[in-house]
Structures are given as structure tokens and as C-alpha cells.
Amino acid sequence: MVLSRQRMSYSQAAVAALQAEMAADPRVVVVGEDVGRGGIFGQYKGLQDQFGAARVIDTPISEAAIMGSGVGMALAGMKPVVEMRVVDFALCGLDEIVNQAAKNRYMFGGQGRVPLVARMPIGIWDASAAQHSQSLEAWFAHLPGLVVVCPSSPQDNYSLLRASLHCGDPVVYMEHKTLWGVEEEVDTSLQVPLGQAAHLREGQHLTMVSWSRQVQVCRQACEVLAQEGIEVDLIDLRTLWPWDRQAVLASCAHTGHLLVAHEAIRVAGFGAEIAATVAEELGIPVRRLGAPRIPVGYAPVLEAQARISVDATVQAARRLVGR
Amino acid sequence: MTATATVTPSLEHLPALYRCMARIRAFENAAEILSQGGVSAYNKTADGSAKVRGPLHLSTGQEAVPAGVCAHLTPSDYLTSTHRGHGHTLAKGADLGRMMSELYGKATGFNGGKGGSMHIADFSVGMLGANGVVAAGLPIAVGAAHAQKLQGRRAITVCFFGDGAINRGPFLESLNWACVHQLPVLFVCEDNRWSATTASGPMVAGPGAAARAASLGLQAVQVDGNDVMAVYQQAGELVTHIREGGGPRLLHAHTYRVKGHVSVDLAAYRDPAELDAALKTDPMRRAREAFVTAGGDSAQLDRIEAEADAEVAQSMRDADAAPWPDPATAYTDIQTTGEGQWF
Question: Cβ separation of B143 and A80 shorter than 8 Å?
Fold first, then answer.
């Protein structure tokens, strides 16, 4: 008997998801730098041994060719998992994802589909400074044709990676650079549809919306706030495009206050889209928390300036509800 | 070294190659006229009356390259193209009428009016698309070829690009990738000597595409791209080699861009003598001379041209009569996940 519940890390969950998909579908292949040795975060560990070098394909450091060949493979009937290492490096393949993967289906009048999953982890990678610490999910959410996924837990990483490989669209799949070691029990039979938020905590005073690693910070803030009698309705968006408007609006209609918190820069961040939508639809007070518009610095004291702390989250929530 | 035809221009092969070139030429000539006033560029203003709108990149005078190469392909072979892609599309076997309709932006076009000239594609014959971005087709071609290899198919991918593309990173990345993975891909550099409105020569370090390929150990052959039999012969050898699993090859075809960068660009920036010299090597004129010299009947080629003209004229009537796309199709074929959530 195969147990469907196993304790897994965030990276092990990704490996398990790929194992399941690659075993079930010969069209699924992995393409990228260092994938044969398991990937720099262990997110492909053991897959080349299991499925061979023809399906877990080591490539040169050629982001444009990795992303672009993923498009070509997808058009030719494969389902590539395209490894970009970190989102910061995916910028070297931006034409291939923005002008090619995202536009192909529409501009050719629906003649082809580009079913691929481009993994490009986001977030501040401790002490890695400005070129390895960005959260650029809003860039991709802006682009028609793309799905944008930001899982925050091992369970979601397992279920959403599988869902991404089934959706038939190009998916920008953004794990977080520092969540790889996080462990929890994962139910491998659990399906999570793209575009469905997770309701992590129920409360009547305030809706808090977040995603990716910032969810952890929000959870801690909720504990502090609960001690003060402020009960938070916490929503993990999980998928940024399409985002779960229904869940967010329903919660906001109930609580009357919205705080959106993300690790990405606040200016033109995706939090602005959510806050504006809620303000337009419900006219309730909204507030955004995001990084200042500064590059991430190396020294701990500089890096900390780009982080949204538990304390800052608690204070923003208090102000919003008038405490 | 530059290869030239070592076989006698074949009376058997030339009419088909000539027909391919004649259809491209007739299409480009018509599209050129239809597009005047269709775009604001090069000191011209769009007046709203043109049937064909937007930037239109003509391959007039370059017909021998797609004709000679694509004669060796089947619909199961893939092709990626450039912004100057009408010739590639026709040579790959796509329907001329549907391409004209797409240039008109009509519902009956290949892309239902969503793409126009720069995004001409006919996936049903393996033509995976023209592209508005220089060198963008190279990685896609490499991926398609990689899939063909993984799938164990005998099919190959042909990747057309221009001399301007060899200065972009994806050129190096894709050639290297194709060599590393020994993929069934034929890279075809259509060297028309112009990068938009800048002469390519002063912008290219070293001798060009073939030399850059050779530096990676990728065998490259140079060919007179205005000699359709030479292109046909060289491409045939390379395609056979690739189809038999021999790995990637590059064909560097020397041709000339007779028109401006886009159809409203009169190319006043170049030396008229350069154009005059190029016109003397016009590929259709040369093919005709070769055909007649070998004993062919010139009237046969006249008939081919007349048929091509008639086909293009019919395509214009059809495109004129065709409906515009339903505005609702602006919201279709984008993505399935989140479909309907456009705001």
C-alpha cells in the first residue's frame, strides 16, 4: 500500500511532483543548468538517475536558449519543465518568455499551445545581494498568456507543480529561494487547482492577503494580533494569475479591512492590483506592505531594510483597524 | 568556400523551383503595392486606406533560398522564420490565399487576423511562425529539433535567420546547444547584407555566419543564394546528412535585399550602384537563363508566372470579400487557465 501522506521538504515535494508527472507522461522533460546533479536547491534530486539524461537534460548557461528551446519543445509536443535557476537569471531569457511563450498561442491564432513550466525562484536569498534577491512576480502577472504561481508550502509546491504541468498554458512557477528546507506532511493525493487561494486563518477584523515566503511572516503577525484581540482572516493567494478575486472580495466584505503584504517592492507590486480591486469593488480601507524601492543590499543591516518584518506587519494591521 | 551548382541545371527540377520563386515574387509585389500608406515610418504617414497595414518586410529578390531549401522538406519537418517570412511560408507549402487574408487582417487568415505579416504561421505544414524579434526563431527551432530527436522522429527542423541575427546572443546559444545535443537542425543564414537600415558589413566582426559556426565545430557551407540550383543542391546534401542523424549544419546563403527594410522604406540610404549590381544577379532571371540554356522552353516559365499572378489576384479578391474577425476573438486563444478573467 502506498501512503499518500509523507513528510517532505518544499524541495522534496517538488521532486515528488515531477517524479509523478514524468512517470505518468513521457512528454514531460526537464531542461536547464545543473539539473542532472539535482539542481542547486535539490529540486531535481534523483530525477536524472530515474529518468535518464535524455529527459533530465543538462544544458549550457544559455538562458535564452533554455527558455526558447522550451517553447520549441512545447510546440513540438513535449511538456518541458524549464529551469531558470532564479528569477534574476530568467531575465536573460525574457524575450523568450514574454514575446514567445506568452504570445505564441494568441498571435498565431490558436494554432499552437505552449504547455511549459518555467521555474524561477523569487525572494531575498540571504546575503546574496541585489542580483540574486528579487521578487518579480508582478512583472509576469502583467502579461497576458502567462500563469503565475507562488507556492508557500511543501503541500502547495507538490500540488501546484502538478497542476501547472496539466494546465496546458505557459506557467511562470515561482518557488521561494529560502523555503526549500521547510517541511510538512504532504498529501500526494491532494489536488489544488490553479487560481484558488488558501484560507489559512479565520478572523472578523481584518483580511490579510499574502503569498510565498511572506505568508510565514503574516502567520506570526496574526498570532501577535490575536493576543491583542485582532482576529485576522489570512489568505494565501498561491496563484497570482489568475488570482482568486472571489475569495479575497468575500473575505474583505466580511472584515471591512484589507492589508496586502508581499516581499516584492511595494511600488507597482501585485499588492497594488489587489488593493485597487478591493477599493473599487467594496470601497473599504486598504493598505499595502512591500519592500521600499531599493536594491537588496549585502550587509545584514542593509538587507534588513528590504524585508517586511512581523513587527511592521503588526503595526500596519493595527493602524488599519484603528488601534 | 562558396559552393556553386556542379550539376547541370535540371530541366526536371527547375520548373518546380521556378514556380515556388514566382509565387513568392508575385505575392511580394502585390503586398508591396497593397501596403503603401499602411504604416507611419520612414517619413511616410499611414493614410488609413491601405489594405495591408503595419510594417511589411519583403523578401523580393531572396526567393531562391527558401525555394531551394524547402524543396527538400515535408510537412512533418518544422521551419522557423523571421520577420521577412512570406517566402519561407509559401515554400513550406502554406496556402497563399490564407496568407494574403492574414495580411489583410481578415478572419480567414492563418491567424484569424491576430498576427498579420510579422506573425505568419501555418502549423499544419510545420511552419512554426514568422517572428517580430530578430534571432528569436533560433532557440525555438533548436527546441523543436530537440523534441524531434527525443521523439525518435526522422523529421528535421530548418531555421531561417538573417545576417543581422548573428550579432544576437541567441544565435550563439542556439548553435552551441544544437552541437552539444547533436540535433537535427539546419540553420540557414539568409545574408541579404542589410540589418534594417544599416549595412551589416561594418557591424559584423569577422567573416560572418559560416565562420562563427565553424568556430563551434558546426560544419557550414556557403552558397550563392541567388542561384536556386546551387541552393537546392547544397541544401539537399545538408538535409540528407541531418536526416540521417549526422547532427546540425549551417547553410550561409549570400543574397541581397532588393527592397528597403519595410515596404515603405525606399532605401535611399544605399548606393544605387549596389542595387543595380544586385539586380543583375536576380535569382529568377538567372534561373530562367539557366533553364533556357539547358534547353528548356521559356514559355513554360511564362505560364508559371502568369499562373502565380492569377493566384495572387484571386487571393486579393478573396481577402477583400472575407469578413473581419469577430471583435470577441480579441479575447480568445490567450490562455485557458483564468480564461475570461481579463480585467
Answer: yes
Amino acid in position B194: W
Give the residue numbers of A marked as catalytic: 132
What letter would DSSP give residue A99? Answer: I
Q: Which residues in chain B are closer than 8 Å to A65, comparing Cβ atoms?
A: 138-139, 142, 170, 173-174, 176-177
Name the CA radius of gyration of chain A, rounded.
19
Contact status of B142 with chain A (Cβ, < 8 Å): yes
Spatial CB neighbours of B207, under 8 Å, sequence gap ≥ 6 = none
Partners of A58 in the β-ladder: A32
Note which residues in 51-90 of chain B have CB less than 8 A from chain A: 78, 80
**Cell numbers found for residue A129:** 545581494
Task: Give this complex's ipTM.
Answer: 0.94
- Note which residues in 246-285 of chain B have CB less than 8 A from chain A: none
Cβ-contact A321, A212 below 8 angstroms: no
Cβ atoms B77, B126 nearer than 8 A: yes
**What's the alpha-carbon Rg for chain B, to the nearest Å?**
20
Q: What does the alpha-carbon distance between residue A131 and residue A152 come to, in Å, rounded to a whole number?
A: 22
Residue B178 at interface with chain A, using a CB cutoff of 8 Å:
no
Which domains occur in chain A, in start order?
Answer: 7-187 (3.40.50.970), 198-320 (3.40.50.920)
Which of A22, A31, A62, A149 best tests the B interface by mutation, with the highest count of B CBs <10 A? A62
In terms of CATH architecture, what is B2-36+52-317?
A: 3-Layer(aba) Sandwich (3.40)
Q: Is the CB of residue A170 less than 8 Å from the CB of residue A115?
A: yes
Domain ranges of chain B: 2-36+52-317
Instruction: Give the end-to-end CA distance of chain A in Å, rounded to a whole number.
Output: 54
Closest CA–CA distance from residue A144 to any residue of chain B (Å): 7
Run of H or E including A281? helix A270-282
**Measured distance CA(A68)–CA(B178) in Å, rounded:** 13
Cβ contact B186:B249 at 8 Å: yes
Residues in chain B: 343
Looking at the complex, does the CB of residue B165 fall below 8 Å from at least one CB of chain A?
no
Number of residue pairs across A and B with CB atoms under 8 Å?
Answer: 161
Q: CB-based contacts of A179: which residues, under 8 Å, 6+ apart?
A: A10, A123, A152, A157, A212, A213
Q: A147 vs B335: CB contact, 8 Å cut-off? A: yes
> Would you write out chain A's pLDDT as a tens digit for each of its 323 residues?
456 899 999 999 999 999 999 999 999 999 999 999 999 999 999 999 999 999 999 999 999 999 999 999 999 999 999 999 999 999 999 999 999 999 999 999 999 999 999 999 999 999 999 999 999 999 999 999 999 999 999 999 999 999 999 999 999 999 999 999 999 999 999 999 999 999 999 999 999 999 999 999 999 999 999 999 999 999 999 999 999 999 999 999 999 999 999 999 999 999 999 999 999 999 999 999 999 999 999 999 999 999 999 999 999 999 999 98
Cβ <8 Å between A60 and B176: yes
Q: Does B132 touch chain A (CB under 8 A)?
A: yes
* Interchain pair B173, A145: CB under 8 A: no
Q: Residue A110 corresponds to which amino acid?
A: G
Any A CB within 8 A of B189 CB: no
CB contact under 8 A, B139 and A76: no
CA distance A242 to chain B (A): 5
